[in-house]
Amino acid sequence: MSILNEKLLFLFSLIYICLIITITLAQPNLVYKRCKNTENYTINSAYQRNLDTTLSTLPTTNSGLGFFNFSTGEGSNTANSFALCRGDVNPDECSRCLNDSIVNLRKLCPNQKEAMAFYHKCFLQYSNNNLLNSRYPDRFNGALRPLMDELRGVAAAGDQLLKFATGNRTGPGFVRIYALLQCSPYLTEQQCSECLEDEVSKIGIHGNGKIGGKIVLATCYLRFEIYPFFNQSTRAAPQQPAGMIDSIFL
Ligand SMILES: *[C@@H]1O[C@H](CO)[C@@H](O)[C@H](O)[C@H]1NC(C)=O
Ligand SMILES: *[C@@H]1O[C@H](CO)[C@@H](O)[C@H](O)[C@H]1NC(C)=O
Ligand SMILES: *[C@@H]1O[C@H](CO)[C@@H](O)[C@H](O)[C@H]1NC(C)=O
Ligand SMILES: *[C@@H]1O[C@H](CO)[C@@H](O)[C@H](O)[C@H]1NC(C)=O
Ligand SMILES: *[C@@H]1O[C@H](CO)[C@@H](O)[C@H](O)[C@H]1NC(C)=O
What we know:
alpha+beta, five-stranded antiparallel sheet, disordered C terminus, binds 2-acetamido-2-deoxy-beta-D-glucopyranose
């Protein structure tokens, strides 16, 4: 191959790589998504038109703090939407993440009336049900508490090598709550249970509380999220750091 050809090849490779990077960057970074499969809409239905309008307006409703909320339509054809950016994301990035996630989520859930997704920088959900229901925190805590109590018992009853438990429970809407609890194995069953109980009593979501949280003490650990953050098929603790959910507010 001549030197010129090699240089051209190199140049084209470079352009190709830049193109791939650009395309990749345009995709919002998906962490977790759920499409609610029990209710679908059909093409050109009133719901689809309302959803189109809702999602094209949603990005313009920034409260100024990265919170977005918009609804269109009436009765069972109402399309509600709600979005949130991670607290440390600037308005430009926030807007880009939301715009990209709207395109992305509708591709992922092409005919479902309700869908939600977490991206690295933003969260998006839409539904025919009211998403900002004031009873949501009560129902969330109502499901979280029994899950925590159950897992606390399992973790505390562990052995001298591992005191650890994970589980999930259905929360309000189609949210599912996942939790992981762990004690230092040298604690007794009672010490473990008390340490976790102490932590459990501090969590839960209030009027505008967090969905998801993490408490780390030297002797016990507790984390819950509304997406699976631990390996379901292993007893080992997760390697993954806390997600953006630590800063999600209702
Ligand atoms: C809705 O559509 C999805 C595929 O897009 C399908 O898997 C699901 O079964 C449908 N649900 C109903 C209730 O028809
Ligand atoms: C959602 O938006 C509506 C206006 O479209 C507003 O009245 C309402 O207060 C908003 N809800 C929240 C929780 O911000
Ligand atoms: C996102 O979309 C809205 C309208 O839907 C537009 O006003 C805004 O400029 C877009 N933001 C970015 C960063 O593309
Ligand atoms: C939820 O927990 C049950 C056991 O209670 C388990 O069988 C199931 O795999 C879990 N589901 C998810 C989605 O993690
Ligand atoms: C989950 O655990 C199983 C069994 O230990 C392992 O084979 C698998 O690679 C793990 N998955 C992840 C994502 O860590």
